[in-house]
Design brief:
Structural class: alpha/beta
Helix content: 25-40%
Order of helices and strands: HHHEHEHEHEHEHEEHHHHEHEHEEHEH
Distance between the termini: 54 Å
Radius of gyration: 21 Å
Length: 391
């Protein structure tokens, strides 16, 4: 396909009319086992001398179509789909690191990824140094001789911090260190880290890619060496394979990803402008704000600023009053769906961290994470206006 238009790619990438009898929607191949016409064919496909499928955990035509879509959207050499975002995170890390290696990662990021890095250190001796990733040079300062991975998350969860992808990539290439970025919040519509020199990206496809709060999935996309190592090691040995029915749902969601992200971007920007002028709001974290510490970097590496907002209303009590007073916006842990959801970070997603770790990551008791949906902006504005008035 010659075109590079995102909306056209999201609709047509991955389709193969000849292979699927002209079906415009890639069929769901529910088979877990694939038969061969003869022994030689079975051996050739099983040993990957010839393309084909033989066992559902190790490949499926529906999932292969999703992987092709994601490789195109991220401009990657290859991609592999998993049953969850954390399966993708784990595969990415373990495809690069082994016992005795070292990782540099943001102090403020998705808490379960933080806990994974602590787990790997405690159980397998893979150490992690957590840094303030707002300053790219901090990656260089934390690197050691045994550093194998720079982990990035931009915008970060839940403070929407921005890391300069190009600068970190340049540092990593000087030092011979692999880079992996979590691109879940931005999506390939708003940001393509690989085009900034990053080696691989992961997505929780549960979020914006699926977009309708009805599936759990993950994707790793990037240079062929990392992705194929993940496919033949973690993908094969750990069993985090995605079901073909879920692969199909993710592809269906991706077809409208561009349209949805335009609305997410628009609504989040409008709400942010409302919040910043409200005296009940202590701080607003959104890369689209001129006051954001790395706003200019975000403008350079992002097409839009996303649908995620960090909102600090000053205290645990104020946070609870706000979320309990909302009517249209729902209280929920996940994000990236068509509906607007909010959560109290300290008592929900980041409750697994110690108070000291939350403080180091900038997670205050008054911090709320808001995933802005695609509802009418006037309805969202009214809902937050009446809820803020009750604080």
């Amino acid at each position: 396909m010659a075109t590079e238009s995102f909306n056209t790619l999201s609709v047509h990438a991955g389709e193969d009319l000849d292979d699927h009898f002209g079906a415009l929607s890639v069929p769901i191949y529910s088979a877990s086992v694939f038969a061969f016409p003869d022994a030689d064919e079975g051996a050739a496909i099983h040993n990957e001398v010839k393309l084909g499928y033989y066992y559902g955990r190790l490949g499926n035509p529906t999932t292969a179509a999703l992987e092709k879509v994601m490789a195109r959207l991220e401009n990657a050499e290859s991609a592999i789909a998993f049953s969850s975002g954390m399966a993708a995170v784990t595969a990415a890390v373990l495809s690069v690191c082994r016992s005795g290696d070292h990782i540099v990662a943001p102090a403020s990021m998705y808490s379960t990824a933080t806990n994974l890095f602590h787990y790997l250190e405690d159980r397998f001796g893979v150490e992690t140094t957590f840094i303030d990733a707002i300053t790219a040079e901090n990656y260089r300062g934390a690197a050691r001789e045994n550093t194998k991975l720079f982990w990035l998350e931009t915008p970060s969860n839940p403070l929407m911090q921005i890391t300069d992808l190009r600068k970190v990539s340049n540092i990593s290439k000087e030092l011979g260190i692999t880079t992996v970025a979590d691109n879940t919040f931005a999506t390939p519509y708003n940001q393509r880290p690989l085009e900034c020199g990053i080696d691989a990206v992961i997505h929780s496809a549960t979020k914006f890619l699926g977009g309708h709060s009805d599936l759990t999935a993950g994707v790793l996309a990037g240079n062929k060496n990392i992705v194929e190592t993940a496919r033949h090691e973690c993908g094969k040995l750990f069993g985090g394979n995605i079901a073909p029915q879920i692969s199909w749902l993710v592809m269906r969601g991706i077809k409208t990803l561009g349209l949805r992200m335009e609305r997410h971007n628009h609504n989040a920007s409008a709400l942010t402008n409302m919040f910043k002028s409200n005296p009940k709001v202590r701080a607003v974290y959104y890369p689209g704000l001129d006051s954001h510490p790395n706003h200019e970097i975000a403008r350079c590496q992002m097409r839009g600023f996303g649908g995620m907002i960090g909102l600090d209303v000053g205290s645990n009590d104020s946070a609870k009053i706000l979320i309990n007073s909302l009517k249209l916006c729902k209280i929920a842990t996940s994000l990236g769906g068509v509906e607007t959801v909010i959560q109290h970070s300290a008592s929900m997603t980041h409750a697994t961290l110690t108070r000291e770790a939350r403080a180091a990551a900038g997670i205050s008791d008054g911090l709320l994470r808001l995933s802005v949906g695609i509802e009418d902006i006037d309805d969202l504005t009214h809902d937050f206006d009446q809820a803020l008035a009750k604080i």
